[in-house]
Amino acid sequence: MLFVPIAGHVAVKTSTNLIVIMYLMAIGYLGMAMAVAASGNPNATIGVSRALTMMLGYEVPFFTVILGLIIFNGTSSLELISNAQAGSILNWNMIKFPLAFIAAEIALQAMMGEKPFDAMIAPAEIASGPMVELSGKYLGLAFLTHAVAIFVETAIIVNLFMGGASNVFTFVLKQFEIYLITVFIEAVFPRFKIEQAVKFLWTVPMGIAVLQLFLILL
After folding, report:
1. What is the pLDDT of residues 184-202, one digit of tens each?
2. Closest Cα partner for 82 from 68, 93, 95, 98?
């Protein structure tokens, strides 16, 4: 979160590199995998294996989207990509690259663990998966980590496709709009099986992202 620009403000100004940010975001899932592996609970093990499998599913199309934007802007700095969209809504990457935005939104749904990509939690099937053995402060830390991840993921989308914002209030409002989209989708779609989710992520958003990358390269 320290590397993500929020309305022009960055806690750590040494780097807003997208590759670094995406690399650090994976630590949360890997840390949870290490934490719950010692519990011996089969539900936790199943949940972690699903989470890591899902991560492979959404990371590939999302990185393809990021690659296209990096090539177009000539930089991997999230701050510079955001600043390049200033001036008008017509400058937003959401308008210039709608296919990339659609692919990123689908990947975001999986990144946030919302339906139809919530197989790693699946309360009716595996009793909340990775968090089944957590309680007290450890369960609180798990939920806090998830909350921070949601803030970071929506902030990345706002910077990549909606031009960031000139003030914090507008930035958070844009984040809320992105979050509402995920909530609407979550309310409508049923849960995918894990193999269905990965297959869908590697075909639909991946195909859209590759098409957008091809159009950018032309």
Report:
1. 999 999 989 889 999 999 9
2. 93
Query: Is this model's pTM higher than 0.85 or not?
Result: yes
Give the 3-state secondary structure of residue 6. strand
Question: How far, rounded to the nearest angstrom, does the alpha carbon of residue 202 sit from its chain's CA centroid?
Answer: 15
Per DSSP, 197 falls in state H
For residues 159 and 81, the answer to whether their CB atoms sit within 8 Å is: yes
CA separation for the pair 174, 25 (Å, rounded): 21
Q: Is residue 155 part of a domain?
A: yes
Q: Closest by alpha carbon to 132, among 58, 26, 51?
A: 51
Residue 3 in any domain: the answer is no
174 vs 176: CA distance, rounded Å: 5
Please check the confidence at residue 102 and state whether its pLDDT lies above 90.
yes
Residues 6 or more apart whose Cβ sits within 8 Å of residue 71: 213, 216, 217
- Tell me if 61 is assigned to some domain: yes
Total domain count, the chain: 1
What is residue 213's predicted lDDT score, i.e. its pLDDT? Answer: 95
Range of the domain at 168: 18-217
